[in-house]
Amino acid sequence: QLQAFGGGLVQPGESLRLSCAASGFTFGDYAMTWIRQAPGKGPEWVSSINTGGGLTSHAASVLGRFTISRDNAMSALYLQMNDLKPEDTAVYYCVKSFGKYYSRSSLREDYDYWGQGTLVTVSS
To answer: How far does CA 18 lie from the centroid of its chain?
Structure first.
């Protein structure tokens, strides 16, 4: 099970930290990903991290502003979001890969499990 939380309403330029609590599987054995879906749009891949946390990848739209991280001891995934923009408004989902590699895909069938999302709204 995956449960994302930490979303909310913020003004442009502000920061938020999303968290995802994982349970029911050995968290450290799987690559993890954040995917977002803006209102009226399809899913967009945001960031991925390998099993150990030493290898990450971010979409060009968030590079330099967002940072993905994980704590395997706590079975937790994080997304630190800085300098938020209105175009970052979306529901953010934490997503479990099938194995230890990530694919930078936004397709639902490329992932094993999608958790419940958390809404981030960036507006002045």
So the answer is: 8
d(CA 39, CA 62): 18
Q: Per-residue pLDDT tens, the chain, 124 aa: give them.
A: 999 999 999 999 999 999 999 999 999 999 999 999 999 999 999 999 999 999 999 999 999 999 999 999 999 999 999 999 999 999 999 999 999 988 899 999 999 999 889 999 999 9
Pull the structure tokens for residue 114. Answer: 């999608």
Tell me how far apart the alpha carbons of residues 48 and 41 are, in angstroms, rounded to a whole number.
20
Beta bridge partners of 80: 17, 67
Contact 22, 31 (CB under 8 A): no
Residue carrying structure tokens 């995934």: 77
C-beta of residue 92 within 8 angstroms of C-beta of residue 39: no
